[in-house]
């Protein structure tokens, strides 16, 4: 066993890390790392470029054993917030990876001080003990949950109020309307920036499927609810990201209908389960069941 650490090279490693995440997900067993879909979403989210994070991709660490990836440490939307992915056979790398993160993936807090925060799954007592021994403290805010929806063979009927329609972006990919529902759906004020570069970037993701991205169209013709859905054909799982409903059209069952339609379509492709990285009541009411939390472990550095 010869384990080597090296920096991430986007052109060479993007798919390699994605494949590593696919391989370390085992259907029907415990989820230990990100889904590949979240990795893909990260790299096609406009935040990566708007915040200049694309300049720091070489800070992502990769651990290899004879050329095969066995561990990854990366940020997502902020430097200082770290996610660790490990082949379970190499769990002894956790301390080394955490040391690397402290030296290479730090951020600056609101107090102007360097810090590091690493997400650790709630049942990973080994990693928790390592983090505690290195001076990290377990936080109780900004938890990340994971919930799942078991897709039935006979899918429940999906209903909408009269005059509203379910469509996919394969039917109608009006990016101005997509831009508006996502802007308003995440509670931003006013009208969105008409620049569609960010929307086009997301749709350029290799596994982005317009037929799985669902919108609800109002009688006015506007898009008023949106569900982004991703599908991993290797493991046959769906992944929900993002979901948004225009505040003028909430509490009407539109978001529920969009999510269920996306899941239903994944089921038609062979998926037996769909995941979402939250435990919000909205999803639990639809039929998702919470699996676990990831807690942030924080350390202020000198």
Structural features, described:
The protein contains nine helices and 14 strands. Helix 1 (10-24) packs antiparallel against helix 2. It is an alpha+beta fold. The model has no long low-confidence stretch (mean pLDDT 97). Strands 1, 2, 3, 4, 5, 6, 7, 8, 9, 10, 11, 12, 13 and 14 form a 14-stranded mixed β-sheet that branches. The protein folds into two domains: 3-144 and 294-300, Gcn5-related N-acetyltransferase (GNAT) (Aminopeptidase); 152-271, Aminopeptidase (3-Layer(aba) Sandwich), CATH 3.40.630. The longest helix is centred in the last third of the chain and has 16 residues, at 254-269. The chain has helices at residues 10-24, 36-43, 47-50, 94-104, 125-133, 175-185, 197-203, 254-269, 281-286; strands spanning 3-7, 61-65, 68-74, 81-86, 107-108, 114-121, 137-138, 144-150, 165-168, 214-217, 223-232, 237-245, 273-276, 289-300. The protein is 29% helix and 28% strand. Strand 12 (237-245), helix 8 and strand 13 (273-276) form a beta-alpha-beta unit. Keywords: Transferase. GO terms for molecular function: acyltransferase activity, transferring groups other than amino-acyl groups. It holds the Pfam family Acetyltransf_1.
């Amino acid at each position: 066993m010869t384990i080597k650490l090296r920096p991430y090279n986007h052109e060479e490693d993007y798919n390699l890390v994605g494949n590593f995440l696919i391989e370390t997900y085992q259907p029907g067993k415990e989820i230990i790392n990100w889904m590949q879909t979240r990795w893909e979403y990260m790299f096609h989210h406009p935040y990566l470029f708007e915040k200049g994070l694309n300049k720091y991709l070489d800070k992502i660490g990769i651990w290899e054993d004879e050329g095969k990836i066995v561990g990854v440490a990366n940020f997502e939307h902020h430097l200082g917030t770290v996610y660790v992915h490990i082949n379970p056979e190499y769990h002894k790398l956790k301390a080394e990876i955490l040391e690397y993160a402290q030296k290479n993936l730090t951020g600056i807090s609101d107090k102007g001080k360097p810090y590091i925060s690493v997400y650790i799954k709630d049942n990973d007592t080994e990693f928790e003990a390592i983090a505690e021994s290195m001076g990290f403290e377990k936080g109780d805010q900004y938890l990340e949950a994971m919930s799942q929806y078991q897709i039935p063979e006979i899918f429940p009927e999906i209903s909408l109020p009269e005059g509203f329609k379910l469509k996919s972006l394969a039917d109608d990919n009006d990016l101005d309307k997509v831009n508006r529902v996502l802007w308003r759906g995440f509670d931003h004020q006013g009208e969105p920036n008409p620049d569609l570069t960010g929307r086009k970037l997301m749709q350029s993701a290799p596994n982005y499927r317009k037929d799985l991205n669902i919108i609800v169209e109002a009688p006015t013709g506007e898009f008023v609810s949106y569900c982004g859905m991703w599908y991993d054909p290797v493991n046959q799982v769906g992944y929900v990201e993002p979901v948004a409903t225009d505040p003028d059209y909430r509490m009407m069952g539109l978001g529920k209908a969009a999510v269920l339609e996306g899941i239903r379509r994944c089921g038609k492709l062979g998926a037996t389960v769909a995941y979402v990285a939250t435990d919000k009541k909205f999803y639990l009411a639809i039929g998702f069941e919470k699996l676990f939390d990831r807690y942030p472990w924080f350390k202020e550095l000198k």
